[in-house]
Specification:
The chain is mostly helical. Helices cover 68% and strands 2% of the residues. Strand 1 and strand 2 form a beta hairpin.
């Protein structure tokens, strides 16, 4: 009878076997909780201020004080769900379809030119009597995605004119021309500035920016030759320099905004106690909602809002800098840069620091599609944060 031999190396300890069974197939990072909390705080703050700013105007014009807040709350819930869903999707899918996204955006920008409203503007696409959206909002995101794709694909060639300037300049020029045709000044400014910022982040050499600025100045000069644009721009600048030149016309909204800001003082009149929202500030739930914030919450409350936005942008850049993938890094930086630019320009308009260009305040101003686009972009940043978390660990 042969002796029985036992190979002890063939045995796996029970604890090791459990670890092997329970070990995930692929390690996944966690979303950035700090960034998400900042988004939710600003969204909640924005909803409260929207209701406070809009209920008098809504009652007078719609017969229902809850008209705007009910719709915004519905879009906010859908937007948060979309944000969390997008955060679980691999952001690299955007790189794969970046050109298709850009092409689709161009189609929408052309279509909207044939859909003018009662004031002669062509900015909105209406689907029945229920849904409407601005293609320019999609264009901002499309530029961020496309430019992140260009810069990451040609990372080692960004110092050349052929790869570091030409494709960016061509695509940006097409979008800007189409948005200008809508007479959408604020959209033109943001898209142009966002495109330049993405080129800078991507590695375009400094010497080429002088050429771009010269080309931009020449384009503006050509546009201003057109009488309608010249008249439009001149009226805006004149009103900006002295709103009382047309106190009952173009300067009225700015004057009422400055009165609201001045009335707030240090501590404000108290939440819900704004006087200017009672049919003095036209449509206070939209572009000039920050004036109501200043009046009701004062300098202290307005400063808290600005600080929260600053923290959101800062945290977004932290996520971008920690991401080892260049496309993801540029994507996150572009999304938070968009938010930062829009906040700065909105506050500048409300305080009459720059001419009135109709720029909304992200997460505060009324607008369902704009809110959902903003929350969708925040979902993209959260998706990138998962890769950043892995790199940190």
């Amino acid at each position: 009878m042969k002796p029985i031999t036992i190979d002890l190396n063939s045995f796996i300890p029970v604890s090791a076997a459990k670890e092997r069974i329970l070990e995930p197939k692929k390690k996944r990072g966690k979303i950035d909780i700090t960034f998400m909390v900042l988004v939710l705080i600003l969204l909640t703050f924005g909803l409260v201020m929207l209701f406070s700013a809009s209920y008098a105007y809504a009652f007078y014009n719609k017969g229902d004080s809850f008209y705007y807040i009910e719709r915004q709350l519905m879009f906010a819930i859908m937007g948060v769900v979309a944000m969390l869903a997008i955060s679980q999707v691999n952001y690299k899918i955007l790189q794969k379809y970046s050109l298709l996204l850009f092409a689709g955006t161009l189609c929408l920008l052309v279509i909207v030119l044939f859909m003018r409203d009662k004031d002669g503007f062509a900015r909105w696409i209406y689907i029945g009597n229920i849904l409407s959206f601005q293609p320019s909002e999609i264009a901002k995101f499309a530029i961020v995605v496309l430019f992140a794709h260009f810069a990451s694909t040609n990372a080692d060639k960004m110092g050349t004119f052929k790869y570091g300037v030409l494709p960016f300049a061509v695509c940006l020029s097409i979008v800007v021309v189409l948005v200008i045709a809508e007479r959408h000044l604020s959209g033109t400014i943001i898209i142009g500035a966002l495109g330049i910022a993405m080129m800078w982040f991507g590695g375009t050499k400094l010497k080429y920016f002088g050429m771009l600025l010269a080309a931009g100045a020449a384009a503006v000069a050509v546009i201003l030759i057109v009488p309608t644009f010249m008249q439009y721009a001149t009226a805006r600048v004149t009103t900006w320099l002295d709103p009382y030149v047309d106190a009952q016309g173009d300067g009225y909204q700015t004057i009422q905004s400055l009165i609201a800001i001045g009335s707030g003082g240090l501590w404000g009149t108290g939440l819900g106690n704004s006087r200017q929202k009672y049919l003095y500030i036209p449509e206070p739930q939209n572009d000039f909602i920050f004036a109501v914030v200043c009046e009701e919450l004062g300098f202290i409350g307005a400063s808290i809002v600005v600080i929260l936005f600053a923290l959101l942008v800062w945290r977004g850049f932290v996520i971008a800098m920690r991401c080892p993938d260049k496309f993801g890094s540029l994507l996150a930086a572009g999304c938070v840069m968009h938010i930062g630019m829009q906040v700065l320009l909105n506050i500048a308009v409300v305080t009459n620091t720059i001419p009135n260009t109709g720029i909304s305040l992200p997460l505060f101003s009324y607008g369902g599609t704009a809110l959902m686009m903003t929350l969708g972009e925040m979902g993209v940043v959260l998706s990138v944060s998962k890769k950043s978390a892995l790199a940190k660990n």
